[in-house]
Amino acid sequence: MANRARLWIAAALTLAACGTGPGNAAPAAPPVEPPAVTSPAVIPAQKATEAATEAATATPITYPAQGKDAWLIAPAESDPPAGHAGRLFRYRVAVEKGIVGLAPADFAKAVQTTLADPHGWTAGGRWRFQRVGPGRPYDFTVYLATPVTRDRLCDDNGDGYTSCRNGKSVVLNVARWVKGVPGFAGAGLPVYRQYMVNHEVGHRLGNGHELCPGQGDLAPVMQQQTLGLHGCRPNPWPYPDGHSYHGRSGVYDDKTPRRDEGKLS
Ligand SMILES: [Zn+2]
Fold it and tell me: Could you list the residue range(s) of the whole structural domain that residue 211 is in?
């Protein structure tokens, strides 16, 4: 167990991968398709309406299991940097070719809106963010990648399911962007997408994984909420009520669902 614990810690500190670390050589979880990301039984009426409206109007996003490993970089934003004080992080947003139905500018807007939110990482006055376009210096890149390309960029256990951060690469798995996870069925897909952005960018800012503080509490944004909530409630924000919110450092030994095989229609 000691060895295994060390591996977990090493994975959390060095790779900052969001799936299970290389120490988890246990058999893969049984193949369970995540249920649909909407669950009328637990969605408040207004959210259910919003979800239904989005489903009716949004273009379906499709993608192969393995994209072209070639990228469309979104143009720079015209807004001033988000945040009022602190170090400026310049970032690029890149969408892998082969992902259909999501314009890079639209994905970039979702990332930018999340990073600029008053409940986001800028709230503490330590960080600011500005999206730059192709050919400009940057501090990190937010990739939207197909599962196989995700594995190459993350260079971790290659689970094809989770997202990750590896060095200057914040890698969001398009499978999760499109399908979400069962634990966020009640919160909704837009909330899970905010979580993906804030969690992986949180790694880029130097944060490691955290644990659920207690039954019924909000999950810290650095908890691996993709794999399990452990009694906490879904939460995409590092400053949910305007104050920094954390749990104890640590990771859970959650099983990762089977890798995503693409969504072509
Ligand atoms: Zn993580």
Answer: 38-257
C-alpha torsion angle, residues 27, 30, 31, 36 (rounded to 10): -130
Residue 102 covered by a domain: yes
The residue-averaged pLDDT of 14-32 equals 46
Check residues 86 and 16 and name the one with the higher pLDDT: 86
Q: Is residue 14 part of a domain?
A: no
Ligand 1 centre to CA of 247 (Å) is 14
- The total domain count for the chain is 1
Q: What percent of the chain has pLDDT over 90?
A: 78
**12 occurs within a structural domain:** no
Continuous H helices in 25-159: 45-57, 104-116, 147-154
Whole-number Å distance, alpha carbon 208 to ligand 1 midpoint, is 7
- For the cut 50, the answer to whether the pLDDT of residue 25 exceeds it is no
Q: 221 alpha carbon to ligand 1 midpoint, in Å?
A: 9
